[in-house]
Amino acid sequence: MASCCQFLDAAFDSHVAEIMAIFKGILFCKDCGLNPCVLESDKMVAVERVLNNNLRNASFGTILSEIADLRSQFMGLKVSVIPSSANCVAQRLAKLALDTLKNSFWMEGFPECIRGLLEADKVF
């Protein structure tokens, strides 16, 4: 298991922010050598755009193009939609990034602030 939270000093709308989170997640998996890898999002529209390589929106078409390139090199990658209620860990990591204003990465571990959520999900 690996996790990260990355602070991006940018003003994205929620849709672009979710696509950027997927992009950063894929980069994290690739850099850590995590294969196979499952990325989950509670934003169906963002996942559909990533999976369908829908580049119609110029404001984030470049990001989607980068994601498509990465996906073609990363055979063990799965991007899927999950219910918002199942995305508590990701939401807490996002809050941690905003609270600390820094990037943090964990391999074979996790930040203490998500321990209770992981125990509730029986993930670890």
Automatic annotation (TrEMBL):
SUPFAM superfamilies: Ribonuclease H-like. Signal peptide: none annotated. It comes from the Eukaryota. One of its GO terms (molecular function) is RNA-DNA hybrid ribonuclease activity. Residues 5-97 form the RNase H type-1 domain. It holds the Pfam family RVT_3. This is RNase H type-1 domain-containing protein.
